[in-house]
Specification:
The chain is an alpha+beta fold. The protein is built from 8 helices and 28 strands.
């Protein structure tokens, strides 16, 4: 039997989007699919391509940009017509998993508003930005093994915390936080010893996914000097199950905000890779923040060029993320440490005054971007619920 998938014109997941994920219908193995409206299309069945019968996207992503374009065009043709009904599944009836096997994970610190806010909190008598911040995309290597798919519960971490006496104690994090971020998935890897040119970005990166990089601020504050984030970040990073191809974001591309001083030559590109993406942070069912990605100081192309500038290689499936996305207005801050200004200005969440996350809290991050026509496209949401420390 053949079927035509009817998708409302206002759907965020229409023919201009077509994000990729890995799904399993009841009683069947995981395989690659494309989301169209509230349905998932089995690509192995519709395209008769064994590469999509795998439980991850890596083999397909390694094929490179020519193959990415070819498959996207074919899927566009499919959704414009009739599809084998046995290859279409309701989204509500399938299980989802991490769409890629992640070998390495890097987190950046690319929002000038976020960096300035934290600098003002932590160094009130000094310059909020450290001397290197405007010269390079600051980042650190995260823990790929604790990147989890959206919907996975997050166990409150335990660690050392500074006390009023100046010596630490050990226990559950008391200042548990979120970081609303955008992640970039490497498609075609790069060779060890060979930096990636800034204008190779779209030939190397397949697409984007929403990220929540959970943060234990009290653990982080005690441990981060002199080598940076460690246990306060590595316990969990949530990732959307849907990767939106860069090709779906052409209408969202914009110039970066002014960069002063001018970046060094290896960070100057001929292409615009600012992105006009609007995020929403929902805390226990209430929207509390609206971070604007258009305000990001460093572009993902600059991040990739800097990540590989020393000759570090990348591999298919590697993930790097933007760092917290924040804007100049108080309601545009993408972390709760900023929203509550270090816990001094509680946030109204439903009928409670809140600062940091409590056990049982659930946070969902969504985002939309301009599409090529009047309708906006949506990025797959990322959500997680806090469970008590073990």
């Amino acid at each position: 039997m053949r079927t035509r998938i009817e998708v409302p014109a206002e759907s965020r997941f229409g023919p201009d989007n077509l994000p990729y994920g890995v799904f399993a219908p009841a009683g069947k193995d995981f395989r690659v699919g494309v989301r169209y409206g509230d349905q998932v299309i089995d690509l192995a069945a519709t395209l008769d391509a064994p590469v999509f019968a795998a439980p991850e996207l890596n083999a397909f992503l390694a094929k490179g940009p020519d193959r990415w374009r070819e498959v996207r065009e074919r899927v566009r043709e499919l959704v414009d017509g009739e599809i084998d009904a046995d290859a279409v599944y309701p989204l509500a009836d399938v299980a989802l998993r991490l769409p890629v096997r992640i070998g390495d994970y890097v987190d950046f610190y690319a929002s000038i508003e976020h960096a300035t806010n934290l600098g003002r909190m932590f160094r009130p008598d000094g310059d909020p930005l450290l001397p290197n911040w405007r010269y390079l995309p600051v980042g650190y290597h995260g823990r790929a093994g604790t990147v989890v798919v959206s919907g996975t519960d997050v166990v409150r971490p335990r660690g050392q915390r500074r006390t009023d006496s100046g010596t630490p104690d050990f226990g559950p994090a008391l200042r548990l936080d979120i970081e609303a971020e955008l992640g970039y998935v490497i498609g075609r890897g790069s060779e060890l010893g060979v930096p990636v040119d800034i204008d190779e970005f779209a030939d190397r990166v397949f697409g984007v996914a929403l990220i929540n990089d959970w943060s234990a601020r009290d653990i982080q504050a005690w441990e981060y000097q002199p080598l940076g984030p460690f246990l306060g970040k590595s316990f969990a990073t949530s990732m959307s199950p849907w990767i939106t191809p860069l090709a779906a974001l052409e209408a969202a591309r914009i110039p970066l905000p002014d960069q002063s001083p001018a970046p060094l030559p290896y960070l100057r590109g001929a292409q615009h890779w600012g992105l006009d993406i609007d995020l929403t942070v929902v805390w226990n069912g209430q929207s509390v923040a609206y971070p604007p990605y258009a305000r990001m100081y460093w572009s993902p192309a600059q991040m990739l060029a800097h990540l590989t500038a020393n000759g570090a290689s990348t591999r298919t499936g590697d993930l790097y993320a933007s760092g917290t996305i924040s804007g100049p207005a108080s309601y545009e801050r993408g972390s709760f440490i900023e929203l509550s200004w270090g816990g001094s200005q509680p946030v109204r969440v439903n009928d409670q005054e809140r600062t940091f996350l409590e056990d049982g809290d659930e946070v969902t991050i969504t985002a939309t971007a301009p599409g090529p026509r009047s309708a906006r496209i949506g990025l797959g949401e990322v959500t997680g619920r806090i469970r008590p420390a073990r």
